[in-house]
Amino acid sequence: MELFFKDIKLNVEIPKEFDASKDTVIFIHGFTGSADEWFPVIEQLPDTFNYAAIDLIGHGKSDKPVNPDYYTTEAIIEQIKFIKDKLTLSNPAILIGYSMGGRAALSFATAYPKEIKGLILESSSAGIKNDAERKKRYEDDLKLVQFIHDHTMEEFIELWYDQEMFNTQRRFSNDKIKKLHRKKYDNSKIGMMNILKGFSTGIMPPLHDKLKTIPVKVVLISGELDSKYTFINSKIVRGFHKAKHKVVKNSGHNTHLEEPKRFIEIVTNYLNQLLPAQVQK
Asked: What pLDDT shows up at residue 279?
């Protein structure tokens, strides 16, 4: 489904039949990802909900405008709001975001707490509180922007997935790794550079002081082998009004890719708790 917000196209994938009487779950991918990465997860989730997956600005089939104003935290929040309202007729939705997509989902939830019915954040963060660390992160991301500018997308994807937090994916077969990376080669250099400049963890407003404004139960998911994000989530879980932190065994940063069975189990259990008592399984 193509939606037009102001003068940009935003792509939304709806893999299953959509029933307006059901609540809607919206998935948001991570940096370099796309909506269709969620299809293997969505196909195994209960049919008691609608499911949609967004291509964030600069990614997938959504537009990749040159104007950096479309990639700021505020712009992304309003793009998610537009999509959510179109899909749900302005009713609250359940958001599930991975990594950068988790930051987008959390930014939306703190801006529009009454617009969400549920929230799951996978391997994500609430931003960086320390000013010096935030400045350093932004400087590092601007170096990546320059790298993308000076190199091919293939070279950037190989550099990006050479980070320690993705080391656990080396256990995949070479063919699977090549397939995963090859799909990301289609990303736009403009889209990748602008999302890093506009929505870097080093430039988004830290949200730690706003976590308690989220009125719904939140589930934080991280991989046992991803020590950085498991540590971050073990800290921020205390900041929410009501939240649980689930650590997925034998998984690194991308739990829905590395341990999909456990990820789907956590999401299914959470969604079932949102159903009226008479239809809970």
From this structure: 62
